[in-house]
Amino acid sequence: MQATGRTPRESFAIDDAVTYLNSASLGPRLRAVDAAGHAAVARMAEPWHIRSADWFADARALRALFASLIGAPADCVALVPSVSYGIAVAARNVPVAAGDNIVVIDQEYPSNYYSWQRLARERALSLSAMIRLVLTEYVRSKK
Prior knowledge:
By secondary structure, the chain is mainly alpha-helical. About 45% of the residues lie in helices and about 5% in strands. The protein contains 5 helices and 2 strands, in the order H-H-H-E-H-E-H. The protein has a two-stranded parallel sheet. Helix 4 links the parallel strand 1 and strand 2.
């Protein structure tokens, strides 16, 4: 991410009078994300300028940027169309054995829960939902 000279709050298009905390389902976007989205829509308005190679160039660049952020090779980064799709892919590929226990947070967003519920049902696993307070206390006890 390039330095903009802005504070973190100024990086978002949020009115100073607003404190928005519901970012789990629909959060405010960075100004840079809005600009990139507008540029993509403008590019699609003239499809005759889009070449075959263009379909993959942005994705490759994004994977490389994210990989550098987390210190991983770009080949280890997958872009998916949604969090629920990514969770479903992860649930289908995590190594498990019969009798293992999957722990999720109680009242988790349904699309996350359903993937783990399906895995538990298909592989004879148990599925436990922990209340967030209990999970927080457990994590603190391990420090």
